[in-house]
Write a structure and sequence with these properties.
Layout: H1 3-22, E1 26-33, E2 42-48, H2 55-72, H3 79-95, H4 105-116, H5 119-135, E3 137-138, H6 140-153, H7 157-164, H8 173-195
Antiparallel strand pairs: 1-2, 1-3
Helix pairs in contact: 1-2, 1-5, 1-6, 2-3, 3-8, 5-6
Length: 196
């Protein structure tokens, strides 16, 4: 793997972490690993998310892609993120019911994207990506520090209020099984394609 590819994966995973922090979620772990047997490198950002299939999940999934786009001008990673994001939005659109009429999901996505581009988030993004690039892992203390800085320096109250305005979904066991089956099928197809 080239140093550039490794750096790109670091930026991608840092993007998930910063997006989660911006949404007030706790990031437990963030790390990247070297490729195994012909596969690309992989990264992981473990987030405590009370909303595993909704709008927050979509935004955290897209954080890595947005970070790549902002830093490199394009996005190459995030196949699984796109799948997870699509499933989250599908479930969100079919199961969520807003408590009031304003603002809509599009407004929330737009406002979060705007905050993500602010200097405070970009500084944390660069710092976290730099640690991942050098060490392959960011410790919990560093993640917590950046979370506090983002929440202290950026007014996220409108986003938090807007996200709270969405009712939590009631997902039947059938939906959970369907989502799990779809995710497994999509992963299997991608693995077969990569094997060719």
């Amino acid at each position: 793997m080239t140093a550039f590819r490794w750096s790109r994966v670091a930026v991608h995973e840092a993007g998930h972490a910063v997006m989660a922090m911006l949404l007030g979620l706790n990031v437990l772990e963030c790390d990247i690993s070297k490729p195994k047997r012909g596969r690309g490198s992989s990264g992981r950002c473990v987030v405590v998310d009370p909303d595993p299939v909704g709008l927050r999940r979509f935004l955290v999934s897209m954080g890595g892609i947005l970070a790549e786009h902002l830093v490199f001008g394009d996005d190459r990673g995030g196949e699984k993120d796109r799948q997870d994001g699509a499933i989250s939005l599908f479930v969100y659109s079919s199961k969520y019911r807003r408590k009031t009429s304003d603002p809509g999901a599009e407004t929330i996505i737009s406002e979060v994207s705007e905050l993500f581009r602010k200097q405070e988030c970009q500084s944390s993004l660069k710092d976290i990506a730099s640690v991942l690039d050098r060490c392959g892992r960011v410790d919990r203390q560093t993640l917590d520090k950046h979370g506090r800085l983002i929440r202290k320096n950026l007014d996220t109250s409108r986003i938090m209020a807007a996200l709270a305005d969405f009712a939590e979904p009631e997902i039947s066991p059938g939906w959970k099984e369907t989502i799990s089956r779809w995710t497994g099928q999509i992963k299997g197809i991608i693995e077969r394609i990569r094997g060719f």
